[in-house]
Amino acid sequence: MQKSMRILLLAAWLGCTTGPALCANSLYEQLGAAAGVHRIVGAALRRYYTDPRLHDDFDNVNQVWLQPRFETFICHVTDGPCLYKGRSMAASHRGLHIDQARFNAAVEDLQDGMDEAGVPFRLQNRLLARLAPMERDIVTR
Ligand code: HEM
């Protein structure tokens, strides 16, 4: 097999679409690493703070406090080089009495934020699949 063919096969195996030089193998890297996660979380939180379905929840939460925590959390769950040491999803959302409708609204805003950040649909779904199991800790009503 020619060397160029082997490189292409390796790239395909790694899930790369842009060529070996830009190959990224963790979901974190495919989302654009720190800069990409920063853009995604920024775009999602901007929506959380203004969405009429959600903004009451965030009234007393400082975005400057929340954003880096959220970014570290996303970095951690997408196999990036971060260790999330914040509270568990159950502990941080306990007492907020989040129902299914508000949870769905947050997911929708995250999807719109990822659209804004230019994240391909396939990667959006991979991130959402990692967050989906947390629903049972976050939705308590
Ligand atoms: C998959 C969905 C969600 C994820 C991954 C997520 C993630 C997080 C993270 C990482 C924190 C910081 C925790 C800490 O460092 O202590 C946090 C806090 C918070 N989240 Fe979520 N969250 C989600 C859904 C929601 C929803 C649906 C709401 C409201 C409708 C919400 C409202 C809040 C609020 C108000 C805080 C701040 C709590 C405080 O002041 O202590 N979150 N969330």
List keywords for this structure.
141 residues, mainly alpha, Globin-like, 9 helices, 63% helix, binds protoporphyrin IX containing FE
Provide a descriptive summary of the structure in words.
With 141 residues, the protein is mostly helical. The chain has 2 domains: 1-25, no CATH class; 31-138, Orthogonal Bundle (Globin-like), CATH 1.10.490.10. 63% of the residues lie in helices and 0% in strands. The N and C termini lie far apart (58 Å). Residues 17-21 have low confidence and may be disordered. The site of protoporphyrin IX containing FE has 20 residues, from α4, α5, α6 and α7.
What's the overall geometry?
elongated
Number of strands: 0
Helical content, roughly? 55-70%
Please outline the major beta sheet: none
Q: Which regions have little confidence, pLDDT < 50, spanning 5+ residues?
A: 17-21
Terminal CA distance reads: 58 Å
**The CATH C-level class name of the largest domain:** Mainly Alpha
Give the CATH superfamily of the largest domain: Globins
Mean pLDDT: 90
Return the string of H and E elements. Answer: HHHHHHHHH
The kinds of small molecule bound in this structure are: protoporphyrin IX containing FE
Number of domains: 2
Going by CATH, the architecture of the largest domain would be Orthogonal Bundle
